[in-house]
Specification:
This is G5 domain-containing protein. InterPro entries: 3D_dom (IPR010611), 3D_YorM (IPR059180), DUF348 (IPR007137), G5_dom (IPR011098), Resuscitation_pf_RpfB (IPR051933). One of its GO terms (cellular component) is outer membrane. By secondary structure, the protein is an alpha+beta fold. Helix content is about 15%, strand content about 45%. It has 4 domains: about 70 residues, no CATH class; about 110 residues, no CATH class; about 70 residues, Resuscitation-promoting factor rpfb (Resuscitation-promoting factor rpfb fold, Single Sheet), CATH 2.20.230; about 120 residues, RlpA-like domain (Barwin-like endoglucanases, Beta Barrel), CATH 2.40.40. It has 6 helices and 23 strands. Strands 3, 4, 5, 6, 7, 8 and 9 form a 7-stranded mixed sheet that branches. The protein has a 6-stranded mixed sheet with strand order 19-21-20-23-18-22. Strands 10-13-14 form a 3-stranded antiparallel sheet, with no helix packed on it. A hairpin with a 2-residue loop joins strand 13 and strand 14. The protein starts with a helix and ends with a strand.
Length: about 375
């Protein structure tokens, strides 16, 4: 019987110390799980813990359990009340403080927020605003402040890039309705075509001016990663952030006949009339003629005629090519020129170049002669 009294006395001491601890510490208490065996937490250990920490033990059914609580401050205007709440929500703290919300009042954090340490609850005056967001329209109570503050304190999810039909810093008292459009981003991978290029190659197996597709062009493929912007679930815009070719394109090769034109078919060098050695991509040898036109007349490329601008077959010599033209015997030099024009004689292969002069007499002096046309670039 004496042992029983001692045990009861020790239990009452632990409880007393635990309750004393609740009063003495008067702050947020950490909650711990119960010790499941009496031998793991002795009465002496519980007594010592109650004297030195915020952990408080209750002896029940042969076990020592840890009690916990939170001290919550509830503010309503100038009035402030502190209450101790073991767990629950903001609504429980408001009730414990003895406050009742009016029809145009809300709490921050919202009433269904779970109690945590160091939380302060504020009761705020609010107004009813028609809110359209996430596919629905409803009336919500929002506390006074700016639109952004009111939405956040009213428990409305608001993304940094969400689009509002009113300014975020506008006073909520001047707003009756708000529409929020949700902005989200998603990385998406798409497959896109890689267009093939068109290239030309000279062929001495085809007649001068004749063309033939040597290789069919085929588009390649690339994987493109895009950052896609969605507004209320609808795709708005995208930005490419990475891409990788997964299938290379095949160039379309057009063979251009040079048979009879004396094409060397390869690169080399020549010495111009000033003694300068110049590199060229390829050389054509054939008949060269001359033509004239009134000043200001247009060429096939749209440029006005000028001496140094010559006519060619663009299948043999692309427009814009830089050339050097000299007779095969070296007796006459037209010099440096640019391919800007064309004509019937060039397209039917009866000439490989038609050199422009403003003077009719200069044309007659040039006449028709065999020339070397060096394609420089």
């Amino acid at each position: 019987m004496a042992n029983g009294n001692a045990k009861t006395h020790k239990f009452m001491s632990v409880c007393a110390l635990s309750l004393a601890g609740l009063t003495a510490f008067g702050s947020v208490f950490a909650v711990a799980a119960a010790a499941t065996a009496p031998e793991q937490v002795t009465a002496e250990a519980a007594t010592e813990a109650a004297d030195t920490s915020v952990f408080h033990y209750l002896y029940e059914s042969g076990e020592y359990h840890v009690l916990s609580a939170h001290e919550i401050e509830v503010k309503n205007g100038d009035e402030s009340v502190k209450v101790v709440v073991k767990d629950g929500t903001v609504a429980d703290a408001v009730k414990a403080a003895g406050f009742t919300l009016g029809e145009t009042q809300v709490t921050y954090p919202p009433m269904d927020t779970k109690i945590t340490k160091d939380i302060t609850v504020r009761i705020l005056d609010a107004k009813t605003v028609e809110l359209t967001a996430d596919g629905e329209t409803k009336d919500v109570l929002l506390p006074y402040g700016t639109v952004e503050e009111a939405l956040i304190m009213g428990g409305v999810k608001l993304g940094k890039e969400d689009i509002l039909d009113v300014k975020r810093d506008k006073d909520i008292s001047k707003v009756d309705a708000i529409t929020i459009k949700r902005v989200t981003y998603k990385n998406e991978t798409e497959t896109e075509a890689v267009p093939y290029d068109k290239v030309k190659e000279n062929s001495d197996e085809l007649e001068l001016g004749e063309t033939k597709i040597g290789t069919e062009g085929k588009d390649g493929e690339k994987a493109v990663v895009k950052k896609v912007k969605y507004i209320d679930g609808e795709r708005d815009s995208s930005e490419t952030i990475a891409e990788k070719v997964i299938k290379k394109p095949v160039d379309e090769v057009t063979l251009v006949g040079t048979k009879g034109a004396g094409s060397t078919g390869g690169a080399g060098t020549f010495t111009d009339e000033n003694g300068v050695e110049v590199s060229y991509k390829y050389k054509l040898t054939g008949s060269g003629t001359a033509y004239t036109a009134a000043p200001g007349a247009s060429t096939s490329t749209g440029a006005a005629v000028y001496e140094g601008g010559v006519a060619v077959n663009p299948n043999l010599i692309p427009y814009g090519s830089k050339l050097y033209i000299v007779s095969t015997d070296g007796s006459r030099t037209y010099g440096y020129a640019t391919a800007v024009d064309t004509g019937g004689a060039l397209m039917d292969g009866s000439a490989i170049v038609d050199c422009f002069y403003f003077s009719y007499d200069a044309c007659m002096s040039w006449g028709r002669r065999d020339v070397n046309v060096y394609v420089i670039e």
